Amino acid sequence: MPDYHAQDWLLITEALVSWAGNPNDLETPRQRRAWTLAEEIAAEQGLAPGEALLQIDDDWSG
Fold it and tell me: Does the pTM of the predicted model rise above 0.85?
C-alpha cells in the first residue's frame, strides 16, 4: 500500500464504509468490495473497521 499517514488510511476507510452503507444490507458487488477494502485497510492498521472509525482525528490536516 502507498505510504500514507495512518489518518489518511482512516479517512479512506471512513469513505468506503460511508459509501457502502450498512454491512447487513450490501446489495451490489461494489458495496461488498468497498467493505472488503475497508476491512483490509483497517486490519493493515491493526484495527477492526468499527475501531478504525473511532480512531479518526477530525482535526488532523496532514
Answer: no
